[in-house]
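REQUEST FORM: STRUCTURE PREDICTION
Request ID: SP-0412
Submitted by: Lab K.M.
Chain count: 1
Length (residues): 288
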Amino acid sequence: MIETTLADPRLVEITLNGETALAHADATILDVCRAQDVDIPTMCFLETLTPFNSCRLCVVEVAGSRTLIPSCSRTVEVGMEITTESERVANTRRILYEMYASTVDLSLSDDDTRRWMAKYEVKPGRFGEYESHRKVKIQDDLYIRDYDKCVMCYRCVAACGTEAQNTFAIDVAGRGLSSTISTEFDVVLPDSACVYCGNCIGVCPTGALMFKSEYDMREAGSWDESRQTVTTTICSFCGVGCSLDLHVQDNRIVKVSSPLDHDVTDGHLCIKGRFGYAHIQEEAGRST
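STATUS: Completed
RESULT:
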């Protein structure tokens, strides 16, 4: 954390959970909370993407505000008094998780989501048991799309757009519970502008988008993250220098990701970097 003083004109003084803190004037409440080691749940937020404000799980209480404030997008102001874990905040987050659980399948959500649901003692069946109403699971050669797990966080749309790929192959179609992520004119993915970079998979927090290799292993009951190792290397397909995290189980690469904090990729890759590892498996097979 950078040491700062009030002599710095970019700083403002705020109160965070009853304690005085200094923050840069262009920082968001979430930025300040994380800098102060104050934990806040998020689902739609990702540090490499512009905040979209769709999940509302990061809301906090600000003195003088009638409504709860999304911390991921609200910048701090002089004298702001912020409370991150009031009864009102905790109850709101609990209800939001319960509403998500009643409308989508959260069984493959990321570790943070499961941790927060346990913390708030979320009762998934409170608003009714989830029943599949989309019943659409589309398989491609490289990845699958399971709309039953989609929480409409918009991360994939952002990664496909100006935030990373600039392909604009997908966007939101429909309204309300009928909303879904779709290609232009709802054409099949091979007929769309998709370049199969897989960046949408890399940012998905719920398993709605998944490597086909992972999906097949889960279906077969062989997917076991406790037996997986992650090795960081540099992609060899070109000279850009993208960093790859190779997820390996039973001496085979089962998926590839990229570190969010890498200054070359910001977690994003091209089709070769994310999916171009089949030849390694084949070479390994020939040598045995």
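NOTES: Helices lie at 29-35, 87-103, 111-119, 155-160, 199-203, 212-220, 271-275, 278-287.
Reviewed by: T.R.
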